[in-house]
Amino acid sequence: MLRQSRGLARREPIETDRHYYALVLTEEGRALIRKLHKIAAEHDRRITERIGAGERNRLLAALRSITALENRPWKINSEPPQTPHP
């Protein structure tokens, strides 16, 4: 989390509303974001190199489908799934 105490972000007053503040990245925060983007891009490149672009695209589609479930009203079963006995 980008926190003020780590010097990665700072609060700035919003001129049009004294009750609210904007959270703004400091130069250190922007540098960290750039570094994280590079790490993520390298990770993506390595994954694509190992599994191929087609498989990567299928994986991303599956992950998007799973993520979309978060936006659906459904009841989570707190019990673990039952494994059929042979």
State the assembly state of the protein chains: single chain
Low-pLDDT runs of 5+ residues are none
Tell me about the biggest sheet? Answer: 2 strands, antiparallel
Order of neighbouring strands in the sheet with most strands: 1-2
Rounded average pLDDT: 83
Number of domains: 1
SSE-based structural type: alpha+beta
Radius of gyration over alpha carbons? 21 Å
Strand segment tally? 2
Share of helix among residues?
A: 40-55%
- Proportion of residues in β-strands: 15-25%
Please give the count of helices. Answer: 2
Question: What coarse outline follows from CA principal-axis ratios?
Answer: elongated
Run of helices and strands: EEHH
Query: What is the first-to-last residue Cα distance?
Result: 47 Å
Based on the model shown, name its key terms:
86 residues; alpha+beta; two-stranded antiparallel sheet; elongated
What's this entry about, in short?
Helix 1 crosses helix 2. It contains two helices and two strands, in the order ββαα.
